Amino acid sequence: MILPRPVSFTPGEGDVVWDGSIESRLTLDGPSGAYRLVVGPGVVVEAADEAGLFYARQTLRQLAGPDSFRAAPISREPVRLPVCVVEDEPRFAWRGVMLDVARHFLPKHDLLRYVDLMAVHKLNVLHLHLTDDQGWRFECKKFPLLHEVGGWRPSSRYGDRRSGGQTGRPHGGYYTQDDLREVVAYAAQRHITVVPEIDVPGHSQAAIAAYPELGVTPGGVWTDWGVNPNALKADEATVDFYRQVFDELLDVFPSEVIGLGGDEAEGGDGRFVRRIAQHLVQRGRRPHGWDEVLDVGPLPTTTVVASWRGEEAGLTALDRGHDVVMCPEAHVYLDYRQGAGEDEPIPVGTLLTWEDVYAYEPAAADRVLGAQTNVWTEHLDSPRRVDYAVFPRLCAFAEVVWSTPARDVEEFRARLAGHHLPRLDALGVEYRPLTGPKPWQTLPGVPGFPR
After folding, report:
1. 128, 153, 168, 269: which is deepest, by most CB within 10 A?
2. Where is the Beta-hexosaminidase bacterial type N-terminal domain (predicted)?
3. Active site positions, annotated
């Protein structure tokens, strides 16, 4: 009944009434996040650290039943727990979710909610894609036009970019620095690290709209999807501008790892990426880039590489001494379509079911830092649409990165349907049902581009 599946679950006989108290000890010899939970007659937790205690509490919520995930008690009946022993520890150090808040802004309340949903699934890295061609979401006090001008666009592409349609509806928003400090602190309480990303030198049209001198070609905040050929200039003035932007970012985000993007820059510029990477290292941080950064010339060995175009680049990065996060689009892109039916809303990308995600096994699993799902939001314009795209596929991914690779899809299906989906119901998650979308989750007439 536990998801992600623990290393071992030993049931006892009967159950016990739980008053909410826990006898906890930081005496367990194990990796960060490891814990041993004993239920009966009381509840005793031994953990390797505070993270282990936190994950044990998540397991207790699961054992207590779906109503334990509601915002307030709805029953006067006592909470009963099955007598058992649970021994558990995470498989990977990096169990991440990349959330694109640049294409469609996710208000702070909903961003905090996603931190909670990650915590339920024992995920521990929230990678925030804060800037792109379609929007700039980070308040920059030295260069305020970045968020004041770059933070909104007059329209958005209607469905897939090949359709040629536009919504005609303005879209925008940005997080103040204090908003983001709040998100970082809230996540830290749940043992989640927030890794920010400001994408350079491509995916920068929103910044160019605010400060045209930064770009090779001037232009407004982009209202289209896809790869924009416009990129930042590689001159020293533009690099220095971004050094100052990243300095503000570092003041807000304490994460050791800081994202600089580096992807899909047509004709890219290795000098720009290298100079920003060096600046981050000089500030005591570790650069993080998409796998295209491997092509820009020598990078600091501390650079973390996100292997998204497949896994070959990740293997190359390992051979060069980099830490690697596997996130190949064919396996973990949660904006891709979930069904082959015509009722699938805005069907883009390859077919990727929850069963496909569950079957994913990261290459070089014994050498990589971990893995993450990527949630791009070109076609996810509301929290309800994000819920539909992410769940229950994120549940399957959570088990991949937490539990041992021995997996049984039918056993997982039974746990998912019988135990975990009711928890999502209690949390108010509007997931895609296993049988297909509900009528109000479809978007008839909105064009997609299935591959």
Report:
1. 128
2. 28-88
3. 264
Q: Where in the chain is the domain with CATH 3.20.20.80?
A: 94-450
Spatial neighbors of 422 by CB under 8 A, at least 6 apart, are 66
Q: Where are the alpha helices (DSSP H) in 193-334?
A: 205-210, 236-252, 270-282, 312-319, 329-332
Question: Residue 53: its pLDDT value, please?
Answer: 98
Q: Are 135 and 153 in contact (CB under 8 A)?
A: yes
How far, CA to CA in Å, does 300 sit from each of 75, 264, 285, 294, 311?
A: 56, 21, 11, 11, 21
**For residues 74-95, average pLDDT:** 97
Q: In angstroms, rounded to a whole number, what is the distance separating the alpha carbons of residues 374 and 308?
A: 9
Rounded to whole angstroms, how far apart are CA atoms 291 and 53? 35
Measured CA to CA, the distance from residue 417 to residue 34 in angstroms comes to 27
Domain with CATH 3.30.379.10 in the chain: 8-88
And the tokens for 51? 């993270």
Quick: pLDDT tens for 396-405.
999 999 999 9
User: How far is it, in rounded angstroms, from Cα 217 to Cα 207?
Assistant: 12
DSSP conformational letter for 149 = T
What single letter denotes the amino acid at residue 78?
P
86 has pLDDT over 70: yes
User: What's the pLDDT tens digit per position in 224-245?
Assistant: 999 999 999 999 999 999 999 9
Contacts 24+ apart (CB under 8 A), 363-368: 363/311, 363/314, 363/315, 363/326, 364/311, 364/314, 364/315, 364/318, 364/324, 365/91, 365/92, 365/405, 367/318, 367/324, 368/92, 368/314, 368/318, 368/323, 368/324, 368/325, 368/326
Give the Å distances, CA to CA, from 16 to 22, 76, 251, 291.
Answer: 13, 16, 48, 51
If one looks up domain 8-88 in CATH, what number appears?
Answer: 3.30.379.10
94-450 belongs to which CATH class? alpha beta
